[in-house]
Specification:
Hypothetical protein af1432; mainly alpha; 3 domains; two-stranded antiparallel sheet; single chain; globular
Length: about 500
């Protein structure tokens, strides 16, 4: 049997016969999972009530990433050497779709804000060295937390699909050895985490590392720390979709304004030489002076992405995005008319096609790249578009105020659940799902302590294992909620009135 089609445990009842259809069942298992439906009420950037315009949530983002990923895979299969694609590990457009459909299942309520809070709480409150990481949570959802039929843990996906979601195919520590954080040039995402000795991004918690190793075993020729070909396609599709749909959203909502964005672009272009002469401390003091943001981006890319960064191509990308998006779209305020919709949708459609056609296989990729990559011009343009999103949307003070409130909601809920489970009299009345998750996590930590004590930095007491299991179970529970459930559960545990009976408990 093709090792790419191996599942994590044998199946007693197959919906399809073995063979090519195996990966198609993966896609449907993910689409029918409750974790997928939940994404309809999980924040991408802001909740739907935060603006009068229609904005993406995690589900609509996921659908678009899957569409872009499939388009890239199909084009590669039609236009490039199949023997090369086979030698790079194999490319199946359905595996790519499945990975794209699954890639954000682990994102917690309120998007990246929720991720930061849960990471801090996991480390500081429960002593979990690998904290919380959205990609690792996705892998945990797929392989452990979702349920497919009686007795099964996880969705029992093929090795190909499980490996294709491993954007950062290493653990926070210990695997591989030497660990990517110690490489002369670390792969993308493997920088130091916030105030810890681990990496910033990784795709499996230590308790799920055996599942990662099992998935990667189907790719014996894959170098350590390298994405599979199918994962690289999914990762690029995520970048392409992300770079376009948020600026689309916030133009339609009237948040993304022409004047400040145009001022930033024109000031950097006209003062390019003067900005280059500033030392880093002067540039830092420049704050949000027009042009300073793009100069900081230029320096960041030059430092971290020397494998592809080029000064002249970056300047050309600033000019192209400035001409086509800033002057071509933002210069005309969005008024809800069909003409305004044509302008922004036409831009988005053209650029998706442009970026998709820029993707090609890379048999010998740089450490910070993958087996497929965009050509240099497109890569620089995507970097500039992502800058617009970060600088003019995500860094806004009004968004920060909303997120501070959401942070308090998530933190309060975690603490309230911990307090409940610490109540010897009333702990048994906690939500059944929460109790199941705590039991599963505790058993997993006990197994790791027995079979791989070095992963936990030596001997750990039973009390400490119980604390870690309780913490991971609480984190698993909170991260599986929707935005609305998080608010409602937090209010209920805070004594506020509200809906009492629900199927969630």
């Amino acid at each position: 049997m093709d090792p790419r089609l191996a599942r994590s445990h044998p199946e007693s009842d197959r919906a399809y016969p073995p063979g090519e259809s195996e990966v198609r069942t993966d896609l449907e298992r993910i689409r029918f999972a409750s974790a997928f439906s939940r994404l309809a009420d999980v924040t991408q950037v802001v909740t739907s009530m935060a603006t009068s315009g229609v904005v993406h949530n995690r589900l609509t983002h996921t659908i678009k990433v899957a569409a872009v990923a499939r388009a890239i895979a199909v084009r590669l299969l039609r236009t490039h050497d199949h023997d090369l694609l086979h030698d790079l590990g194999g490319l199946d457009h359905v595996v790519v779709q499945a990975a794209a459909t699954a890639h954000d299942l682990g994102h917690p309520p309120f998007g990246h804000l929720g991720e930061r809070v849960l990471d801090r709480m996991a480390r500081e409150r429960f002593g979990l060295a690998d904290g919380f990481e959205g990609n690792a949570q996705t892998f945990r959802v797929l392989t452990e937390l979702e349920v497919l039929g009686p007795g099964d843990q996880g969705l029992n996906l093929t090795s190909a699909t499980r490996a294709a979601v491993l954007k950062y195919p290493w653990a926070c520590s210990h695997y591989p050895d030497p660990h990517p954080i110690d490489w002369p040039i670390p792969p993308r995402g493997a920088g130091h985490s916030r105030g810890t000795s681990g990496v910033a991004k990784f795709s499996a918690y230590l308790i799920d590392l055996p599942q990662m190793l099992d998935a990667l075993a189907a790719f014996p020729d894959l170098p350590p720390g390298r994405q599979t070909l199918e994962c690289s396609v999914m990762d690029l599709a995520d970048d392409i979709a992300y770079s376009l749909h948020d600026v689309d959203d916030f133009h339609r909502s009237g948040v993304l304004q022409f004047s400040p964005v145009s001022g930033e672009f024109r000031s950097w272009e006209s003062g390019r030489a003067a900005f280059a002469d500033l030392d880093d401390s002067d540039l830092l003091r420049a704050g949000r002076r027009p042009g300073a943001g793009l100069e900081r981006l230029r320096r960041q890319l030059k430092r971290s992405e020397g494998w592809i960064f080029d000064e002249d191509i970056f300047a050309a990308a600033v000019g192209t995005v400035g001409e086509e998006f800033v002057d071509g779209v933002l210069a005309t305020p969005y008024d809800g008319s069909m003409a305004a919709d044509r302008a922004i949708s036409g831009f988005t459609s053209r650029w998706i096609d442009h970026l998709i056609t820029s993707v090609s296989p890379e048999p010998d990729p740089a450490v910070r790249s993958g087996y497929v990559s965009m050509e240099s011009t497109a890569w620089h343009e995507v970097s500039v578009l992502k800058f617009v999103n970060q600088y003019f949307i995500l860094d806004r003070p009004d968004l920060a105020m909303l997120q501070r409130g959401q942070e308090q909601t998530v933190e309060h809920l975690v603490l309230a659940l911990e307090d409940w489970l610490s109540d010897r009299i009333d702990a048994g009345r906690a939500p059944r799902r929460l109790l199941d998750l705590v039991n599963a996590a505790t058993w997993a930590y006990q197994t790791v302590a027995k079979e791989h004590p070095e992963w936990l930095s030596g001997n750990v007491s039973d009390a400490e294992l119980a604390r870690m299991g309780r913490g991971r179970g609480i984190i698993d529970f909170v991260s599986s909620l929707t935005d609305a459930q998080t608010i409602a559960f937090g209010a209920r545990l805070g004594g506020a009135s509200g809906l009492l009976w629900s199927s969630s408990l």
